[in-house]
Amino acid sequence: MLNEVEPSEARLRLGGQVVEGSVLENGETLLLTVTDGRQSASVIHNGVVPQLFSEGQGVIVEGTWDGSSFHSDSMLIRHDEQYRTEGEVEYD
Predict the structure, then answer these.
(1) Which residue in 14, 40, 42, 84 could disulfide with 88, CB within 3.0 to 4.6 Å?
(2) What does the pLDDT look like over 4-33, one tens digit per residue?
C-alpha cells in the first residue's frame, strides 16, 4: 500500500473500507482510517463528504501522500448495485 510510496505532490487514488470507530470531524476536516484488509492508512480529508458516507463504507479518495498521511480533497463512495427507497417493500 502507501508505505512503499515515496512522499509526493503527485495525485494518487486510495481505495478501501473506512475503519469502524476511526472517523473524527475536526471543523472542516474529516480524519479517518482506510484499510484494504491488510494495511491501513490515515486520511485527512478536506472537501465535500458524500451524503452516503459512513463507517465501514467503501471509499475512494484522491489526493497526495506525505509519507505518513494521505491528504484528500475528493471522495467517492463505493456501493452495491441495489437501489431502494426508504421503507420500500419487496414483493415475491
Answers:
(1) 84
(2) 778 888 999 999 999 999 999 998 999 999
Nearest to 30 by CA among 16, 11, 49: 49
Q: How many C-alpha atoms does 41 have within 13 Å on its Cβ side?
A: 27
d(CA 3, CA 77): 23
- Eight-state DSSP code of residue 16: E
The model carries a pTM of: 0.80
Element (H or E) spanning 89, and its range?
none
C-alpha cell at 6: 515515496
